[in-house]
Design brief:
It is elongated, with a radius of gyration of 32 Å. The chain is of the alpha+beta class and 379 residues long. Strands 1-2-3-5-4 form a 5-stranded mixed β-sheet, covered by helices on one side.
Length: 379
């Protein structure tokens, strides 16, 4: 088990979505440089003051690359500490270092948070060797013990945040995958409904074409065979997505069904406004608008406090279909959590069809969901 754990750690890839550099990194470096300069100038017991100050100031910019090059940053910082410790151990120089250099703990955190398994193992080995050399060269008692605990705490903090971020990422990926599966099921059902109608019409044509030319019968037979093969291939293709559930042949609910959806909701007032002409909508867009409105309505009923009215507006024009769902309730703090799974699924569905979706507090109060989908989906 220990061997498997070490092998798994060694082969662990780098954490995803590591930001290269943000504004707070410059702030951190600035604070470290200023603190090092002040300590180097004002502290009385600094040995080799210019050298110690230059080392502390010179290592601070390394913090800027801690996420993109975590191992290199650790090697530079703790390699320098190792060299100074060896020089002290050999009596070449006295103990050098400022208390400000505690910022190197950020590099330990970044190594475990963002580095690959190989980088983590190699980097922590370098940190351990540097700590041992420093302790042997100049043991200061409790201060060294506290420093050791600080290094362990920095590494543990990086591991904890890495695990949390990876767990969240996997949950988001699962949510996206579930939304894609749901859309695939709906598309399958839509196409299956129409292809089934083609097969029925072809069969009826054959039955009624006794007096017609042989070519017509051959054409109808080809239509029937092609439709049957298409259905069989589609069933086989999506069977694994359905986990064995049977295919549906009834048309999926669409924009026109939003009125009946509103009637089933336990809210005093749900106002639905739809465009006059809905006949030309692609089936996948028609079904997607219904699902987005259904999810938005469910979220309003679940999270909007004291909501007395929900409005669902669908507007078509300029090759786009726009959906807006608003409520007049007070916003539940739980609803403002960034990247909630329900919102993520809605956004994924809109993006898959070439549209957009935005959700958040409305200027007039309450919560608003705005989606926009093209009325002609590229094939």
């Amino acid at each position: 088990m220990t061997t498997n754990a070490l092998t798994s750690l060694w082969t662990e890839p780098r954490a995803t979505a590591a930001p290269k550099r943000v504004s707070r990194d410059w702030v951190l470096v600035g604070v470290a440089v200023v603190a090092a300069l002040l300590e180097g100038v004002l502290r009385d017991d600094v040995a080799w003051r210019p050298v110690a100050t230059i080392v502390a100031v010179g290592l601070a910019p390394v913090l800027l690359w801690r996420r993109t090059h975590p191992l290199a940053c650790v090697l530079v910082a703790f390699g320098t500490a190792m060299a100074l410790g060896l020089a002290n151990l050999l009596g070449v120089v006295p103990r050098l270092g400022l208390d400000t250099m505690v910022y190197v703990l950020v590099l330990v955190y970044a190594l475990v948070r963002w580095g690959s398994g190989r980088e983590i193992v190699i980097g922590l080995a370098v940190v351990a060797v540097a700590a041992v050399i420093g302790t042997v060269a100049d043991y200061t008692g409790p201060a060294d013990v506290i420093g050791g605990f600080a290094v362990v705490a920095a590494a543990a903090g990086g591991a904890a945040y890495r695990y949390r971020a990876e767990s969240w990422r996997r949950a988001l990926d699962q949510s996206r995958s579930e939304e894609r599966v749901g859309l695939a099921r709906e598309l399958h059902d839509i196409v299956a409904h129409h292809v089934s109608a083609i097969a029925v019409q072809a069969q009826a044509g054959r039955a009624m074409a006794g007096q017609r030319p042989e070519a017509a019968l051959d054409a109808l037979a080809a239509i029937e065979g092609e439709a049957s093969r298409t259905l069989a291939e589609m069933r086989a293709m999506v069977r694994v997505l359905r986990d064995g559930a049977p295919a549906g042949y009834a048309p999926q609910p669409g924009v026109a069904d939003l009125v009946s959806l509103a009637r089933r909701a336990p809210v005093p007032v749900i106002d639905v406004e739809l465009p006059d002409d809905l006949a030309e909508l692609p089936p996948q867009v028609d079904a997607a608008v219904y699902r987005l409105a259904q999810e938005a309505l469910t979220n309003a009923l679940r999270h909007a406090r004291d909501a007395s009215r929900v409005e669902i507006r669908v507007v078509a024009g300029a090759g786009r279909l726009r959906l807006r769902v608003t409520d007049d309730g007070r916003i539940d703090p739980a609803r403002t959590v960034k990247h909630g799974f329900g919102l993520l699924g809605m956004t994924e569905r809109a993006h898959l069809l070439g549209g957009t979706l935005r959700a958040g507090p409305a200027p007039e109060g309450g919560w608003a969901v705005d989606a926009e989908l093209p009325t002609e989906v590229p094939r």
